[in-house]
Amino acid sequence: MLDPRGLFHDAGPLPILIDTDFATNVDDLLAVLFAVGSEKLELAAVTTVHGLPDVRARAARRVLDFVGAFSVPVGAGRAPVQGELFVSGYESTYALPGTDPDHFPSASEVFREVSGQHGDNLVVVAIGPLTNVASWLSEPLEHRPRCVVAMAGCFRKGGTDRNVQSDAVAARRLVEAGIPVIFVGIEICRQVTYDTNDLYEIQKGGNGSELCELLEVQSKNWWNFKGAGFSNPCDPLTLLAFTSPSLFEFQRTDVSFVVGGELNGQTVWSDHDSGQFLRATAVDSERARCAIVSTINRVVRTTGPHS
């Protein structure tokens, strides 16, 4: 039976692959730093999805190199096959020192590599449109992931979230792939906030490093884009759902997604004890916020100014 509390029954950190639309929203940066800082996780790979996948891959590579995660491979993925591309205009503003590779391997190559290394112990964390993940899981695989943890779906009648709406075809293919999925819906994400106080707490231990500067720039870019002084840390919250499941309540459920038409991307679900998937139904907002900040702070404190 799928249960987030059972993900850490093995000794040692749990290997994860993060599939992300990195660099549009500051959330993806926070999520990658959370993964690097978590003692419960081994960041096995990062792959990019959505428009401008190579630009996103370069930004992710620079951040990983800056925090010393040189061995974590980065793969450039695909744009959605259906739906509207969403680009904020800040994707190419990751001004960290570093040398960009001449090219990136494809996201599918990176997935096959880390899947072969970690077998069915690998957890795929999907925090962008589900285009890459659905494609991988529809192919014959020697090793299937332990589960997918997805920032996807809106479990509130009539609502949608951008990740599913960007590629509802892929979202439907994911739930038809026969892989356990833990859903963190947008309605749960909106219960947790990230604002200037949290940014200040993260920056305090950073000794003015370029990483602190980047966090401030990307946070304020996103808040200005939204026209608000805060955002919701959807993506690190998705990782927190299985590193600290005691902060959440979960419900077993069956899920499908509407494809096409005026209702494109809407979530259809049915809660019952024999449901195939899990969805988060509640979160301890304050403890979740503190856990995200403290985990990211661990990375910032150990990443001093670079010359």
* Helix run count: 11
Structural class: alpha/beta
The main pleated sheet reads as:
9 strands, mixed
- Corresponding CATH superfamily: Ribonucleoside hydrolase-like
- The shape, in one word, is globular
Average of the residue pLDDT scores: 90
**Spatial strand order of the main sheet:** 3-2-1-4-5-6-11-9-10
Radius of gyration: 18 Å
Overall helicity? 25-40%
CATH topology: Inosine-uridine Nucleoside N-ribohydrolase, Chain A
GO molecular function: purine nucleosidase activity
EC number: 3.2.-.-
Domain Inosine/uridine-preferring nucleoside hydrolase: 16-293
Protein name: Pyrimidine-specific ribonucleoside hydrolase RihA
Report on this structure.
The chain is of the alpha/beta class. The chain has one domain: Inosine-uridine Nucleoside N-ribohydrolase, Chain A (Alpha-Beta Complex), CATH 3.90.245. The chain has eleven helices and eleven strands. The strands form two sheets. The chain has a nine-stranded mixed beta sheet with strand order 3-2-1-4-5-6-11-9-10, with helices on both faces. It has a two-stranded antiparallel ribbon with strand order 7-8. Helix 1 (26-37) links the parallel strand 1 (14-20) and strand 2. Helix 1 (26-37) packs across helix 11, helix 4 runs parallel beside helix 6 (168-175) and helix 8 (196-203) packs parallel to helix 11 (285-302). The longest helix has 18 residues, at 285-302. The model has no long low-confidence stretch (mean pLDDT 90).
